[in-house]
What does this fold into?
Amino acid sequence: MSTTTATPYSERIYKNERGELYFTLVCCPGCELEFRLLWPSSIRNYPNGAALHLECPGCKRAFTSKDLARGKLFHVGCGCEHYPAVPVVL
It folds into this structure.
């Protein structure tokens, strides 16, 4: 008998106009490391306008999405599984 444990995080919640799910990537304002976000499984829709609390996995700098310059938070359809993943705190 196998047991399945639900992960407390989702990797893709941002949807484009066709409903396709995308990863969300962030570029750290301190060390420029790019990393992807892991969303709490309770969040089903991308929180437009919400302040996301993040910590860079490289330099450990804590910041919010409001601290990011334009283009430093972006969405990618595939090919970014190799980026480090960081949980989001709203």
Residues 9-87 form one domain. Strands lie at 9-10, 12-15, 21-27, 34-40, 53-55, 62-64, 73-76, 85-87. The first strand starts at residue 9 and ends at 10.
